[in-house]
């Protein structure tokens, strides 16, 4: 198993274990390439691993991890990145 495949399994297994979804917009391959190239979590250089332990609190509090690889669910993704057109006018 090569490094990309191993990281892919780690990311998918983590998401399944937590009940999260993986970045529907960019896709995890973008993140895998960044993780391998940088050698650490792509969002913060002091986070030595991805998935990083900090992602749990971020997803719980904000609905996504800092680099937006993991999302609480697709509804959260839609609300944050793809708000319903005209919803701002209803407020």
What are its keywords?
mainly alpha; 91 residues; two-stranded antiparallel ribbon
Structural summary, described in words:
The chain has helices spanning 3-18, 28-38, 54-62, 74-81; strands spanning 21-22, 70-71. By secondary structure, it is mainly alpha-helical. It has one domain (3-83). It has a two-stranded antiparallel sheet with strand order 1-2. Helix 1 packs across helix 2.
- Helix content bin: 40-55%
Helix/sheet category: mainly alpha
Number of domains: 1
Order of helices and strands: HEHHEH
Strand content: under 5%
In one word, what is the shape?
A: globular
Distance between the termini: 51 Å
Multimerization status: single chain
Radius of gyration: 14 Å
Number of helices: 4
Extract low-pLDDT stretches: none
How would you sum up the major sheet?
A: 2 strands, antiparallel
Mean pLDDT figure: 87
Strand adjacency order, main sheet: 1-2
Number of strands: 2
Give a short synopsis of this structure.
The protein is 48% helix and 4% strand. It has 91 residues and is mainly α.
Give the topology, please.
Elements: H1 3-18, E1 21-22, H2 28-38, H3 54-62, E2 70-71, H4 74-81
Antiparallel strand pairs: 1-2
Helix pairs in contact: 1-2
């Amino acid at each position: 198993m090569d490094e990309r495949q191993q990281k892919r399994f780690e990311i998918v297994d983590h998401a399944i274990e937590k009940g999260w979804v993986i970045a529907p917009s960019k896709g995890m391959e973008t993140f895998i390439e960044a993780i391998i190239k940088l050698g650490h979590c792509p969002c913060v250089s002091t986070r030595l691993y991805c998935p990083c332990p900090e992602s749990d609190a971020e997803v719980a509090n904000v609905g996504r991890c800092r680099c937006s690889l993991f999302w609480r669910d697709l509804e959260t993704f839609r609300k944050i990145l793809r708000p319903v057109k005209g919803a701002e006018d209803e407020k």
